[in-house]
Amino acid sequence: MQLPAKGTPPPARDASGLATLLRTAGATDTVLAATGGWLLSERRSSPATQDGYIRDVSWWLWWIQARGMDLTDVSFIEADTYAAAMRHAGLAPGTRRRRLSACSSWYAYLQRADAAVRNPFHRMDLPKRASKPSRYLTEAQLDDLVMHAVAHQSARTAAIVAVLKATACRISELTGVQLAALGHAGDHWILTLTAKGGRPHRVVIDDDVTGPLLDAYLAERGSAPGPLFATRTGARLQRSYVQELLQRLASSAGIPDPHTLTPHAIRHSVATALLRAGEPLDVVQALLGHADPRTTQAYLHVDQLERSPAHRAGRRLAAVVARRLHSRTGTREPRPADIAQAT
After folding, report:
1. Domain boundaries, the chain
2. Domain 139-303 fold
3. pLDDT on residue 340
4. Averaged pLDDT for residues 52-71
5. What is the 3-state secondary structure (H, E, C) of 31-42?
6. Are 249 and 148 in contact (CB under 8 A)?
7. Per the CB 3.0–4.6 Å rule, which of 156, 224, 236, 285 could disulfide with 296?
8. Model pLDDT for residues 254-309, shown as the tens digit of each residue
9. What is the pLDDT of residues 233-254, one digit of tens each?
10. Tally of CB atoms within 10 A around 115
C-alpha cells in the first residue's frame, strides 16, 4: 500500500475534520474525548501547534482506515510498515520524524485514558534529525534588507521586515500576533508574541527604526481588531506569502541566493549577529524565547566558519602567489586568474 504523493492535502486540517476522521475509523466516545484532552494539554495549547498535530495524526488514521484496522489495537509491526511507506514515498526525514512522534504522543495519551491497548510507536527507531546548516545573512545584509524595504516597498512590508529583524520572532509568531498584543511597559513599547507551547513572549520595539515603521504601517492599517499584519480583507498573512516576500525583497536588494532565504533564516541571522557582537547568551536566549540555552548556543556555529583553517590556508597561498608575481613582473596585487598561472 502506498501513501498519496507529496503535496497531497492532509486528511484533516482542524479539530472538526479530525473528529470526522476518527468517527469514520470507528473511534469510540472515549477515544474522541481523550483526543480532545490530548490536543488541549499544555504542550499543545497553541492553535498553530494543535493544527500541526492534527495534520500529522490524520495521515496515520487514513492509513489504518485504508488497511481496515482497529485504531486502538495496532501492532508495532504495522507502525514500522507505515514508517517505511513514508520513507518510500520520499518524505523528508524531518517530516517522517514529526509524524511518528505525533502519533506516539497521541497513543501515549490514549493509553493513559485506557482507550488504547498499546502504543505501537513506543521506542520506535526514528529517522535521524537533519544536520544541514541553516542559511544566514550578515548584519550588513540584514540592514540592507530593511533599508531596501523602506525605500522601495509598502509600509506593511517595511514594518514586517523591521519587526522580523528587531525581535527575531518565529514566522508563526509574526503571522499569529494580534493588534491588541501591542502595548506599553513603562517607557517601552512592547509586543507580546505567543511562543511555542502557548507561552507569552514579550519583546521590546525600539523607538529608532521599528517603532516609526510600525507607526507608518498602522496609520494605513487602522485600529480595527484582528491580526497585526493583515491582508486587505483583514485576514492573517500566510507563511508562504511572507517567505516569498522576503525572497523577492532579497533579490531586488542584491543579496546572494535570495531563493534560499526563509523567515527562520532572518531569526538565525539576528541571533548570530548578536552573539558575534558580544551580547550575553542569556540576553539572546530571552529575545529568542528559548527555554534551553543549548538551543541558543547552536547559533554560535558561524564562528566556526570564521575560524576555519581554509581562511589561513588561503592567505598563505595568496602570499606565495604575490611573491612569485613580484619575482616575475614586479609588485602588483594578485588577481584570481593569477593563482593558476603562479602555482
Report:
1. 15-112, 139-303, 309-342
2. hpI Integrase; Chain A (1.10.443)
3. 46
4. 95
5. HHHHHHHHHHCH
6. yes
7. 285
8. 999 999 999 999 998 888 888 888 888 888 888 888 777 777 776 665 555 555 56
9. 999 999 999 999 999 999 999 9
10. 20
Q: Which three cell numbers stand for residue 3?
A: 501513501
Closest by alpha carbon to 172, among 152, 145, 201, 135? 201
Contacts of 329 (CB under 8 A, 6+ apart): none
Among 196, 175, 7, which residue's Cα sits nearest to residue 95? 7
Torsion, Cα of 206, 175, 247, 209 (10° steps) = -10
Alpha carbon distance 285, 200 (integer Å)? 15
Rounded to whole angstroms, the Cα distance separating 142 from 266 reads: 8
Q: What residues contact residue 284 under an 8 Å CB cut-off, 6+ apart?
A: 271, 274, 275, 296, 299
Instruction: Say yes or no to pLDDT of 318 above 50.
Output: yes
> N- to C-terminal Cα distance for the chain?
59
What residues contact 186, with CB distance under 8 A and at least 6 apart? Answer: none
